[in-house]
Amino acid sequence: MAAKLKKGDAVVVIAGKDKGKEGTIQSVDPKSGKAVVEGINIAIRHTRQSQNSQGGKIPKALPIELSNLAFKDANGKPSRVGFKIEDGKKVRFAKTTGDVIDA
Description:
Blueprint lengths: L9 E4 L8 E8 L4 E4 L4 E6 L8 E6 L2 E2 L3 E4 L5 E2 L1 E6 L2 E6 L9
Antiparallel strand pairs: 1-2, 1-7, 2-3, 3-6, 4-5, 7-8, 9-10
């Protein structure tokens, strides 16, 4: 199945503890159906000091289910993503506004 959400997309969390928060996708794992979003689903990881890095409590963004994310359209509202053919090319579009996401 084609990826409806991709790296760099602005998204809104529609379910879970971070509901209503917004961010951009840093990475997507289509096999597990999860994505890492900047500033969303933050957990504190205790790391040991090493030669390369300072130790301590480091906040880290953990993956969140793709089903809990919605694309943020031009109006800043959550939108579903659809596909259509334009000029012989398959493109994604926001269903609320009809705007093409990636030209």
